[in-house]
Amino acid sequence: MHPSLLEPDYWRKRLELQELVRHGLLTLPRPDLSSRALEVVELKFRAHDGKRLWGLMGRCPLVRGALPARLRVVGPAEPVGIAADDVEGDFVAFVLQEPPGRRLEDRVLDVVRLCRVAALMDGVAADRIELRNGARGPTPDEFLITDSLRAGGLLSGE
């Protein structure tokens, strides 16, 4: 990873430009993926460059109130799914399928967009959103950079 990708100045303008693109969030209930212990909703929204992003949100329908969220990103060829284990411990789970061929900068902005979309959802504690790698091995660079931007206060609008 290039060191300048961790510099706040590198991201400041990109984050400002991202705010100019409406996310156009569409949510669709997915009863075919849901159960008594898991309610799943399909999410469709726009990335900073207008590319359509797709993912799922899952929560336990029996738990109410503002819950912490766990965000995960899967590759273009990986299956997208949420299991009851993902929401165990009273979490709202989000899974985003990254489109093929995305550059690192775009993947970072996609994760930032997912964080912001998650923060808008009813029942999500906006100040308690964490990025989870799942079983994919080392933490992806887009998560490291996003966490660095959050720690630096550049994403305080989540």
Explain how this protein is built.
There is one protein chain. The protein has 158 residues and is α/β, with parallel strands linked by helices. Helices cover 25% and strands 27% of the residues. Strand 2 and strand 3 form a beta hairpin.
How far apart are the first and last residues' alpha carbons, in Å?
Answer: 25 Å
Helix content: 10-25%
Total beta-strand segments: 6
> Strand order within the widest sheet?
1-2-3-5-4-6
Shape: globular
Compute the number of helices.
3
Strand content: 25-35%
Point out poorly predicted stretches: none
User: Roughly what is the average pLDDT, rounded to an integer?
Assistant: 86
Rg result? 15 Å
Q: Structural class from helices and strands?
A: alpha/beta
Major sheet summary line: 6 strands, mixed
The helix/strand series, from N terminus to C terminus, equals HEEEEEHEH
Set out the fold topology.
Layout: H1 8-18, E1 26-29, E2 39-46, E3 52-59, E4 67-74, E5 92-97, H2 104-120, E6 124-131, H3 141-151
Parallel strand pairs: 4-5, 4-6
Antiparallel strand pairs: 1-2, 2-3, 3-5
Helix pairs in contact: 2-3
Main features:
158 residues, alpha/beta, 3 helices
Compact summary:
This protein is α/β, with parallel strands linked by helices. The chain has helices at 8-18, 104-120, 141-151, and strands at 26-29, 39-46, 52-59, 67-74, 92-97, 124-131.
